[in-house]
Every structure is written in structure tokens, then in C-alpha cells.
Prior knowledge:
The complex is a heterodimer.
Chain A: H1 10-58, E1 60-63, E2 66-69, H2 73-80, E3 87-93, E4 97-101, E5 118-124, E6 127-140, E7 143-154, H3 156-191, H4 193-203, H5 219-269, H6 273-306, E8 313-316, H7 317-329, E9 338-342, E10 352-355, H8 357-374, E11 380-387, E12 391-398, H9 408-411, H10 428-438, E13 442-447, E14 453-460, E15 482-489, H11 492-505, E16 509-515, H12 518-526, H13 528-531, E17 536-539, H14 542-550, E18 570-571, E19 575-577, E20 581-588, H15 601-610, E21 619-622, H16 628-639, H17 643-653, E22 657-659, H18 662-670, E23 676-681, H19 682-689, E24 695-698, E25 704-707, E26 710-712, H20 720-731, H21 733-742, H22 757-764, E27 769-771, H23 784-797, H24 802-805
Parallel strand pairs in A: 9-11, 15-16, 15-17, 21-22, 21-23, 25-27
Antiparallel strand pairs in A: 1-2, 3-4, 3-7, 5-6, 6-7, 8-10, 11-12, 12-14, 13-14, 17-26, 18-19, 19-26, 20-23, 20-24, 20-25
Helix pairs in contact in A: 1-2, 1-3, 5-6, 6-10, 7-8, 8-10, 11-21, 15-17, 17-23, 18-19, 20-21
Chain B: E1 2-4, H1 8-20, E2 26-28, H2 31-40, E3 46-49, H3 57-66, E4 73-77, H4 82-90, E5 95-98, H5 103-121, E6 124-127, E7 130-133, E8 138-141, E9 144-145, H6 150-161, H7 169-176, H8 185-198, E10 204-209, E11 213-218
Parallel strand pairs in B: 1-2, 1-3, 3-4, 4-5
Antiparallel strand pairs in B: 6-7, 7-8, 8-9, 10-11
Helix pairs in contact in B: 2-3, 6-8
Amino acid sequence: MMTDASGHSLQRRLLVSMAAGFAVFLVLMSILLWTYSRAAADRTHDLPLAGAALAILERISVGPDGATVDLPNSAMDILSLNPVDRVQYRVFVPGQREITGTADLPVPADATPSASPVFYDADYQGAAFRFVLQGRPFISPDGRQWVAVQVGQTVESRTTQQLFFFAAGLAGLAVLSLIGLGFVWVAIRTSLSPLRQIAHDLAQREPADLALVEGSPPREVRNLFDAINGFITRLRRSRALTETFIADVAHQTRTSLSALQGHLSLAADAEDPGQMRSRLVKAERQAAHTVRLTNQLLANAMVIHRSDRTSLRPLALKPLVRDTLAESLRESRMRDISLSFVGDEIGAGEDIIEGDTLSIREALRNLIENAVRHGPPDNTITITLNGTEQSVRLSVEDAGPGIADADLPKATERFTSLSDKTKGSGLGLSIVKAVAQGHSADMRLGRSSLGGLEVTLIFRRIVPILLLVSGAVFAGDTGAAQTLVIHSATDTPAMQPLIDAFEVRNPGVDVAYVEFQTVALHQSMLRPETIGKPDLVISSAMDLQVNLVNRGLARRIRLAPGIAPPPWASWRSELFGFTFEPAIVVYDKRAISKRELPTSHRDLATFVRENEERFRGRIGSYNIRDSGVGYLYATQDSLQGPQALRLFEILGRTGMKTYCCTSDMVAATARGELAFAFNIIGTYAASLAETSPHLGLHFFEDYNLVMSRTAFVPKDAKNPDLAAAFIGFLLSEDGQRIILKDTPLLPLTPAPEPTSSFERQIRDQRGAFLPIRLTPGLLTYLDDLKRREFLSAWETSLRRDRRSSSSLLEPSAR
Amino acid sequence: MLLVEDNDDLAETIVDRLRAEGHSVDREKDGDDANELLRHFKFDIVLLDLNLPGRSGYEVLRALRAREDDTPVIVLTARSQIDDKVIGLDAGADDYMIKPVDFRELSARCRVLSRRRAGRSSNVFSAGPFVFDRAAKRATIHGQDTQMRAREIQLLEIMIDNMGRMLTKEDVADRLYTFEEAPSLNAVEQLVTRLRRKLEGTPLVIKTARGLGYMAYLADDD
């Protein structure tokens, strides 16, 4: 017999317990590691926060109205070093008033103004933030006063870094653990080698070699060693017993056959027919005995052979007993026997056991045979089958003389016939016993209430298990038409080719396109109840879009592999730019010759100053208070150096006209009202200029700002997947090609073969483009204070009257 | 009768024994020969060994039954494997015996089979003083009518047809009553008791094994 393959391995056990130990170690270490990596990630991310707070603190000054701040762009730039997280800030006088920023940022209850930074985690608008709070004392007319700066960032990058630290640390530990386990494995193998030696010794043996295993095993396996040798000793004894059994069988059969032969030869030699007859009768009886002996020996051998557990199958005992009884009743010597079967107590399915049909049949037959042989010819035999929860009892009892209580233990031994008179072979009950053992059944001998022997076999019952398979119900897609709602600050005709193409590629999809001005769109997103919820928001005002995304209004999008906009044109996988729109100068060729056009912004200022009278009232640009794009261009220009404000002043002196939109400026230039307009959206201008050949497009050589139209999917979009598909389409090769061919816009990816002069110009100026990056840095000039300051500086430069224009737009609208 | 047995000594003793009892016995050694013989001649009973040269006894039996020949067959086998027996019975054997065969038992089984066959094929079944006329639906003992009712006659017929075979109470009920009559097992019991009383003094015995069923046999078989 082979060992059960599923049995446990010592080696595996040791390894598993060692591995469990290592696992506990790893868990403990990982708790430590988690805390450590959190602290490390916090340290790394607190630095830029502290830097930003410091930068803001430095720009706090005390004016006549108390403390005020000129939000530095550097603060946002520092925070933009972290490319994924959203930003919040707040400058306030604790307990008194807000200066600027988001007023409702959480502050710890026990916070006191302090000149050293205080870092803490807090939730704001459903997202986890890390904040720094730092103050600075000022002497104001009311006495000493603290001004506090609070800067916060979402913790996505920190969490990622913490996970990275943690994973890296854990991976190292895991490798160490594996190496440790490897050593354990080697150690186990080494210490188990004596066992392998024993195995080798035993495997090499001849079956007959029952010598003890030699060797001096280590103390730990001494017990096993002794047990094996003990077993070998018992095996020797058992084999001796088997040899005795064979000898017994040989003896029994030979004796029986000799007696038969003796009777027959005597009969053959007998001269008297009467004598011969009596010898033959004896011979016949002897033959019957021999036949029975042989049958039972064979049955015994068969039962022992089949006691191997592999021959056991689930079987119903009741029909088996019933059939066996019906069969044995057909024998003519059973005619006077009164046999009954009591099996009504046990129902169908309650009589299932693991058993071997042949063996059980043989046992039952032998029990009946015993009762018939050892009892009177009209014996009463009752077979009872009943069961309990765990077992099935089969008992056979008879009214015969039975066995004396004292003889019961001997009854099941081989070749022990307790009665000479009935010529038992002494094998019947030992067969039953072997069957019981083969079935792990309990065998009990007792006195029957009928007067004779009662033999009971108690089998273990198998309880059938019902498997309930529950079917899953799948609901199919409804397949109804979907509507993608786009709120956009882009001319409908410019977007229409893209919308049409998207609808063609997605049958059943309907695009509802609603056009807005940039500022109105931004406001509607802050008050969604007024306009309804779009699935997609598209705007050319990059700063306003960053502001919305920074408020946590956007949903993360997973773009198809292969679609990757340049890093400056995407932020947080939430906001994506899809066009390339340089700010350019459009000029009237009749008013300015190409040669005298300035090549840089500095030259532009000089050029205008030198030709102040020539250009009076003939220069146009955006009204940056009304136009989001204009404000964006102007603020970005101001970041490029102090010449921007100088330029505004000079332009102001010439009486620069301001416009709401690129189209108006191009039209005015075309009409000859303007000599040139600058910082206008090049793509629009180029397509508008196509009809007016006297219009020229001009690029600077120092830098040309590039704006990108951006799109994001709001968190509460109804069809976010469809909206994401639209963004994917805009950025795909297909979408970019349509932007190039069918719209006045330019794609992010430059066309391989420029088809228009504008495209050619762009190709030639490649190096001088300065794309506006999608980062929290764009938030600086959206700060209320900062914006007010900037607009007032701009208006002052243009010598505009503040009061007349302040009604145009509430500051809070931006 | 036909005995198909390849061992000459065993065959000789069986043939001699059966002839001594007054039967005419043919013997075949080979499965193929036996098959040929059975194709052309009718026997009352066939004693068939399973281990045969040529065609196996099992194949002979199957071929026989495939020809819709219902000659009673007793299978003789030296194997104690029950599977063989089941196959033998499934293939249409009427009975089986395991070697070494007790001659008295063999004779008894042969008699039961021939009785069963005779009871079915002829209209008159007689055993000692008992005579049952199937056509007239009348049973007599020493010429005296037993005054059996229709149901008793029916039961008697069933028991004679299945002589030597254990019938469960349910088997009997199924054969006695139509589906609509909703047989009660108690009624069967009472009917058997009544029939047994009317058969007293005849060699025809209906044995009851409690919990198992009923079996008819002839007491003078031994």
C-alpha cells in the first residue's frame, strides 16, 4: 500500500510554520514600515508646502487697510513641482478676517498663531489634504497682529510615495524572508537526511528481508527508528502467523481430503454392499464438508483481499440485504426455516454506507449459514436493519442454541468450530469479522431474545449532501440611445466636424453641444443647479479649467494606451489639452511693412513708443477683464519679465483699443481701423485672414505663448464613459487629423506636411513657442487679491477709469 | 435436457445422475457446438457452464435469448463473483448454481423450472393429489373442488408461474390488482392466508418470509 499522497510533509510543515513565523515578522515589520514610509513621505511633501507658505508670507505687507498680500507665482510654482495634487491656500488674520484664498479651509481647533510651520492632515470637501499653517506677527495700528498663511495639497502624491516606500521596503524584507526560508529549507533537508537513509534502506529491500534497520539515528528520529524496527518485528511475527495459517489451511484441506480418500478406498475395497454403502455415505458427507471448507477458505481469502479500502463504494444496504435473503431462500434446505426481515424502520437513503457488495453478501450468507447449520431444522432467523443518525445496524439472530457466553471471544477465531457435532469449518464468524474490519464496522456478538446467537454489524452511515446550485441572472444592456452633453467655450462651427465624426464612430450617441463664454462657463460649473450637469467641459481658459479641476470637480480618466498628450497639456489625468493655439500678432500690411515688424516683445514696446502718434488708437488687444483668454495671455506675459507692464503703459499711451474677441480684432484690422492687434488667438486669426489678403500674421522670436483648449469630465457626469471616449477621440490620431483638416484649430501634434502658410510659419517658429503649462501655477492670478491688483495695474497702465469698468464683472466671478 | 460442460468427469456425474432420475440428457463440450445445437433443437432445460472453450456460456445464452427462445437455463459457474451471476440473470438465465454443485439441489432446481414451464405451457398443473385447470379456473384435491374464489385462483396462477422465486408483497399486489383498485397489502396477506389454508394437504406450499415476500414450492421435491 502506498502512503496517501495528500498526507502532510514534515518538510512542508516545518517550512509552513517557518513561513508563518516570517509572515508574522513581515506583518509587524510592515506596520513599522508603513508608519515610517508615511513619515518619510510627509517629510518630502511638507517641504514644498513649507516653501510655498514661506513664499507667501514674504509677500505679506501692511497697508492702510491692514495686512494684504501679493500672491507670488513662485508659491504656486513650488507646489506645481508635485504634478498630481490639487492645491488650496488661505491668508487670514486669525479670529478677525480673511485676506484672500479659500475661507473655509479646516484649521485645527487648538491652533495658535506661530512663526514655525505646523503640519497636519485634514479632510476638505471629501478629499484628504495635508496642510501647513504658518504665521507672522505684524505691528498694525491696532497693535501686534498675526497674519496666518495656510497652504494645503491633496495627498495623492504623498500616498503614492508612501506606497512606493512601503512596497520597496516590503519587497526587500520579502526577499530577506525568502532567503531565510531558503536556509530553513536547506537546514530541514539536512536534518531529515537520516529519514531518507531509512527510506532508501527500506526501498532497496527484498520483500522477504525483514531484518531490522541498522544505524545510529539522531535523538529526534530515534522514536521513529524504533517504531519502524518494532513494526518490522511485528511484521515478522505476523508473517509467521500467515505461514501458520497456510499450514493450517493445508492441514485442514489435506486432512479432509485424506478422510475422503480413505472412505472412498475403503468403499472400493469393500466386499459387502452394505458396508460399501455405509462407507460411501460417509465419504459423501466428508466431501460435503470439504466443499464447504474450501468455499469458506476461498471466501475468507476473498474478503481479506477485498478489505482494501479502495474497493469500498457507497451502497444502499437494504436492497442488498433483501436480495441476498431472497436468494438464499431459494435453497431447498431453507424451506423449513422461518426467515424474516425487519427493515421497515429504515427509509430509503438512510441505509447508505461505504461498502463492498461482495463482502457484505458473503458475511450475511455466512451468518445465515451458521444459523441454519448450528440450529434446529425449523430454526427462526430474523435479520434486522435499522439506523441512527450516524450508523446503520445490521443484525442477524436466530432461535438456535447459540454460543455459551464464555465461548464468545473464541467464536471469531479461525478454525475454531465450537461444535463438533455440526461440523462447522470454524471460518464462518471469522469471515464476518474480516468483513467488519474491512468496513471499519463494529461487530458485536450477543444473545438473542429468540434464544440463539445475535450478531450485529454497525456500519458508519454516509449522509448524502445536497448541492444547491444557484443560477445567476444576467441583465442585458438596454441599448438605448445616449446623449453626451458638452458645455464648451468654443465656437460651435469649430467643434462641429469633431462632433459629427464622433457621432458617426459611435452609432446611437447623440451629442448636445452648448456654447458658453469662458467666464460664464466657469460660473455655471460652480453653480451646477442653474444650467444642468454636462458630461464634458471644454474651454480655452486654461487657468479657469485648472481652477475647476483643483476644486476636485473632475473625474480621473484612463486614456487608451498610445494616446499621450505632451506633459504640459495634461494635469492629474483629469484635465487634457487637445489643441495648439499660439498667440500672435495680426497686422495690416498696408499700415506696417513686414520689415519694420518687431521681432521680440521688448522690441514691440520700443517700436510702439517710437511710433506713438502713428499708431494712436490703431492698436488692439483683449479686454482682459472680460476675456478669459486675454487675461491668461496678459498674466502669462507678465510672468516673462517686467517688460510686460512697460508694454501695457506704452500701449496705454497710444490709446489701445480693447476687444472681447479675436474675430472682432481681425475684422477691425481688416477694415483698416487697426494697424495691428496682438495676443490674439492665432488659429482663428489665420482662418479669418484667409479672406483678406492684406492681413499678415506675425510671430515673435523671443517667445510666443501657446494656449491649449482643455477638456475634463465632471465628477457628476451622467455618461462619464462616453465623455472619456470623446476626450480619447479628440486626442486620437483620427481626432487630431480632423482638428487639422476640418476646423480652424490646430492639433497638439503638428501636421507632418504643412498645407497653409500659417502652418508653415508655425513649423518655422517651432523653437519660439512657450506653451502655457496646466499646473496649479495658473491659480496664482486667479487669487482674488492678485487679480484685483493685476487688473487695476493693467487699467492704470491703460489710463482707464476704474469706476467705469468695475461694473463689467464682479471680481468674485473670476 | 442439455448439459454444456467442458469437464468430462463433472459432466459424466451430472449426466449419470440426471439419467438416473429418468431424464434424457445430451452433453456438449464446446460453446460453439452448443450454440449450433440450440439453434436447431428444442430442450426442456439447459444446464450451461460459463467457462467454455469456443463461445462462452454467456454468449450462448445471449444468442439463445436473442432468438426469442425461452428455454429455461440454469447457469453453472465456478466463480463466486456476483457480477457474473447478475450478467447471467440479466442475459436471461432462469437460475444459477455455484460449483461444486449439490446434486440434490440441482435436481430440485431442475424440477422447479420444469414445473414452472409446464405450468405455463399447459393448461393443467398437477402435483400429487392437487390438480389445477387453468382454462376452467378450477383447482381440485383428490378430485374435490377447492371452492376457490376468482382472486384466489388468480393468486394461485401467479404463484405457480413464479415457482421457486421470491415475490414481494408489492409484486403480488401489482399483478393481482389493476392500478385503479388501489391494492392494500393487508388484502394480499389475507388472500395468501386463505389460499394457503385451501392448499393444506397438497405438496404445493406457499412460504412466507416476513419482510421479504412469498415463494411457492412443491414439498415433494426432496
